[in-house]
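Exercise 7b. Backbone tokens:
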């Protein structure tokens, strides 16, 4: 079981109080985008064994969306941050690279 802390209301609770919403930092494709780009946006997702940046919602709390950095193999949580940011904050990148020196932020896909 994951124990998460919402970065919006700062409540710490079990993962059952939250809802996972998929991969974070996706580049949204609008109606004027190319068909191939739109198909990729809808269906192509990373599914790494290791560090993954995800969207979560505090369903039974403040109701806000946020991003979470965690290791999918060990379930270690590196930190949570606002969904309005376009990249992981420096302190979360440092925490990840401390455990996974080979990890690099790839930017929006």
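Sequence design result:
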């Amino acid at each position: 079981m994951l124990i998460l802390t919402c970065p919006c209301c700062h409540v710490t609770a079990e993962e059952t109080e939250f809802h996972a919403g998929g991969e974070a930092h996706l580049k949204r494709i609008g109606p004027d985008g190319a068909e191939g780009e739109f198909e990729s946006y809808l269906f192509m997702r990373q599914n790494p064994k290791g560090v993954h940046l995800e969207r979560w919602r505090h369903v039974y709390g403040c109701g806000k969306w946020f991003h979470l950095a965690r290791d999918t193999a060990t379930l270690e949580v590196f930190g949570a941050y606002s969904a309005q940011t376009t990249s992981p904050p420096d302190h979360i990148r440092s925490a990840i690279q401390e455990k996974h020196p080979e990890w690099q932020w790839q930017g929006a896909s």
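Instructor comment: The radius of gyration is 15 Å. The chain is about 15% helix and 30% strand.
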